[in-house]
Design brief:
The chain is 29% helix and 25% strand. It has 433 residues and is of the alpha+beta class.
């Protein structure tokens, strides 16, 4: 009886997390993705072919097989060569499927085929794309090649096709419009704190968190070859990177102004493109190699234990499990403001569920709440949305009961995702990209 109840609760969770219907027709992005990616091909896992053209070619060869079997012994001698040519290539595309064509001897007499087991009927798996486990995934990230987000995408999905996007919102849209399969975006840094923009976008878009990855950040001071630190007048980088290196840059004795740009690798690219010899960038060592810059100072972050946490986003949620540590992210709000926050938190405390993060953001649709008071006048209070991460899987009964209790106190509750925790050990390294 307990197992049946568990499945029913799990199905309820999947209904809550169901994403919007997929688009039947391709839709163009309002803001183009700054990348060039290869056209995708449909993978047939049973060796039928590597693209739709191969599949069509295989079907044509099947037709030629039937035609060859119907030929009598009076056919002309060029039948064999024509059949062999058709088996080798159709419309200039080589096929990867062995169709067991009937061989013909020199006298054009059909020979009986060798006894082979009957061919297995085609199933839906033969016509469906190969499952994407990481090697064929297209992963969107914000920035240009050499950004830390690109390194996080490679760590989350090795051998993936990384797609750079010029804005965070473009990365969200790339997944929603089927241009990318996943998006890897930063949500918080151990020094700079939360990336609030992405928290707002998580609520605006209907993507699901399917995983997390923690990436140690190793900052370097980069400049054009031949430029010395004494010649610098400004330093440019992402605002988070500037704040993470503020004390170190001051200790270097640099009389420079600090200017914020979209991303760290973009700062390196900007210096190299415009040949700026009075400007340095804070970026990764890989960015220096990509854009031909020299490393003036290595490891300039204020804290060697500088880590950025990224989340992986997908169109559909994953099925939560209990065989490994899971984390669940939710967002909720209440019409009565923060007065119910203690009741919500107690729902987790009574069930011994640890909270790893709580983040408050102003309610975008209703940022101010008015409270009438006959004696004083009208009081104004901020309305907040609360983001909470807790260490439990939605497959656990205690997590399901906790959310059921939370729902009683809140006017809005949404599960952003229940996903495996990043348990990979890490240590400060001077070789990180």
């Amino acid at each position: 009886m307990q197992a049946i109840s568990h499945v029913q609760n799990l199905n309820s969770y999947l209904i809550i997390c169901r994403s919007k219907p997929r688009f039947d027709k391709p839709v163009r992005l309002a803001v183009p993705v700054r990348c060039v990616y290869h056209s995708d091909s449909v993978q047939f896992p049973n060796g039928v072919g590597s693209s739709r053209v191969d599949w069509q070619s295989s079907c044509a060869i099947l037709s030629s097989k039937v035609f060859s079997q119907d030929q009598d012994s009076g056919d002309k001698s060029n039948t064999s060569s024509a059949s062999d040519h058709l088996a080798a290539a159709v419309n200039g595309h080589k096929t990867s499927l062995d169709l067991n064509l009937v061989p013909l001897d020199k006298k054009n007499k059909p020979q009986p085929p060798a006894k082979q087991p009957p061919q297995k009927p085609l199933t839906i798996t033969d016509l469906s794309p190969a499952p994407t486990h990481g090697s064929q995934l297209r992963v969107a990230y914000q920035g240009v090649p050499g950004a830390y987000s690109e390194a996080a995408a490679g760590k989350a999905y090795p051998n993936c096709e990384a797609i750079p996007c010029d804005q965070f919102e473009v990365a969200f849209q790339a997944v929603e419009l089927w241009i990318a399969d996943r998006a890897v975006l930063p949500v918080e840094n151990s020094l700079g704190g939360s990336i609030h923009r992405n928290y707002d976008l998580l609520l605006r878009h209907r993507l699901h968190i399917v995983g997390e990855v923690q990436l140690p950040v190793h900052h370097c001071l980069l400049a054009l070859p031949g430029v010395r630190k004494e010649y610098l007048t400004r330093v440019i980088s992402h605002p988070q990177a500037l704040s993470q290196c503020e004390n170190t840059v001051t200790k270097l004795g640099l009389n420079v102004t600090r200017e914020a740009v979209d991303d760290t690798a973009g700062a390196a690219e900007y210096i190299a493109t415009n040949n700026l010899r009075d400007t340095a960038a804070i970026a990764s060592a890989r960015a220096a190699k990509l854009y031909g810059l020299n490393v003036l100072a290595d490891g300039i972050q204020d804290d060697s234990s500088n880590v950025t946490r990224f989340v992986m986003l997908a169109r559909d949620p994953i099925i939560p499990r209990t065989d490994r540590p899971f984390k669940t992210s939710i967002v909720f709000a209440h019409e009565e403001g923060t007065s119910v926050l203690f009741k919500v938190l107690s729902a987790f405390a009574f069930r011994n569920i640890s909270l790893t993060k709580i983040e408050s953001r102003p309610h975008r649709n209703r940022p101010i709440r008015l409270v009438d008071d006959a004696n004083v006048g009208t009081a104004k209070h901020f309305e907040y949305m609360f983001y909470v991460d807790f260490e439990a899987s939605m497959a656990e009964v205690r997590a399901q009961n906790a959310l059921a209790e939370v729902q009683e106190f809140t006017s809005f509750l949404r599960v952003l995702g229940s996903y495996p925790m990043d348990m990979t050990p890490w240590c400060p390294s001077r070789g990180n990209p």
